[in-house]
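Render this sequence as a predicted structure.
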Amino acid sequence: MDNNIFPPAFPAPWASEWGEDRFGLYMDLNYQGVCQRFRWILPGSFLMGSPESEVDREPWGGDETQHRVTLTHGFWLTDTACTQALWQAVMGNNPSDFASDLGLPVEYVSWLDVQQFIERLNVLFPDLQARLPSEAQWEYACRAGTQTPFSFGGNITPEQVNYDGNYPYAGGSKGLCRQRTVPVKSLPPNPWGLYEMHGNVWEWCSDWYGGYREQEVINPKGPDQGNSRVVRGGSWNSSARSTRSANRHGNEPDFRDFMIGFRLAPV
């Protein structure tokens, strides 16, 4: 079996359920009655960043220089952001500002908080080897084989993405502004079965924030050091342009906000 394409262990020891559906292979982790699905993302190449012609491309220093990236190994990625239910089961608390429903994504967690969560989860499930996705893995999964500004195409609506509908994309119509997060899996998945990659909450990545290279790169992991960690995807409080697949920002590792959560990508 070629481990670059197929999972090295399927099912993994931590999986309570597993199988294959229209999106591909999946495995479920269950802890204290909370289920989190992981999806297998095949390796491949894609154009990371945005073309200069993309409408509302980042104009104030957020580097979106388009360049080819090759990911030579497949990887597992949770199909949703981490929920408050899973965070509470592992950590014994719930830091979220929007805490009315444990099915909502956990937020108000810093990059450093997430590292503590990952450490505890890996003690509970040593074979999981959980971590945050790299920025390249995140955008590859978000795009899901597309090169349009969004995985849904050239534009979005609030029925597809949770963003501030008062600020539509590329001349689109204004729409709903929910002013809060929605429960995970409330909105349609992208073509690879991943939910709310655009909007709802920004998601921490493993990388330090830094500029892109113009030449092709293989399995990039970002700068060796920096001041900010990458966040991706936009949030419920973002304009539509900030939820584009290529949009990127960074925050200091100890920064917390009710717009930032995360999803996991085990080794």
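Summary. Residues 164 and 237 are 5 Å apart (CA to CA). The longest helix spans residues 111-124.
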